[in-house]
Amino acid sequence: MEFSFPHARPLQAGKLAATVVALLVSTVAFFGLVPVTDITTLFLAPVVAFFLTMVVVAEALVAGYRALSDDRRLTERLADRPLYAAVRALEAGLAVVAVAGFVALVAWIPDGPMAGPGAIGVFFVVVGLAALVLAGTLLRTVAEYVDYRRSNSA
């Protein structure tokens, strides 16, 4: 990675670093490549995804506000960089799907104690929702990096 990218786009560089670290640590812990005795390591991906979801939703709200206050029409703005707009929409859409899935999961969980296999199933659903957010964020940050490289090379 070029060293000026974090200075030019610090939010995207931070999201990329958080996503890569969360995915690497979770993958290493899940497959037992490193002996980890603490199960809380497996909660890293959902926790990072939770914070990334808040950042993605905030970014989407700011982008929506800017689009409404801009003089150009929305179709003109989207026509400038259609692939980039699609990647941003995909990232925001995956974040919304993950939030909706988590809310549905919480509403679906019955009252009272849950058996061990049920709790493990709930955990895997949460990890799957976290993977959606992490994948969307990884795709967006890579697109940001490619866009940054193209704009600096021109």
Helix content class: over 70%
**Residue share in β-strands:** under 5%
The number of helical runs is 6
Largest pleated sheet: none
Q: Extract low-pLDDT stretches.
A: none
- Tertiary shape: flat
Order of helices and strands: HHHHHH
Category from helices, strands and their pairing: mainly alpha
Topology, number of strands? 0
State Rg: 18 Å
Seen as an oligomer or otherwise, the chain set is single chain
Distance between the termini: 18 Å
Mean of residue pLDDT?
A: 87
Tell me briefly what this model is.
This protein is mainly alpha-helical and 154 residues long.
Secondary structure blueprint with pairings:
Blueprint: H1 5-8, H2 10-30, H3 44-69, H4 74-80, H5 82-108, H6 116-153
Helix pairs in contact: 2-3, 2-6, 3-5, 3-6, 5-6
Describe this structure in words.
With 154 residues, the chain is mainly α. The protein is built from six helices and no strands. The model has no long low-confidence stretch (mean pLDDT 87).
List keywords for this structure.
154 residues, mainly alpha
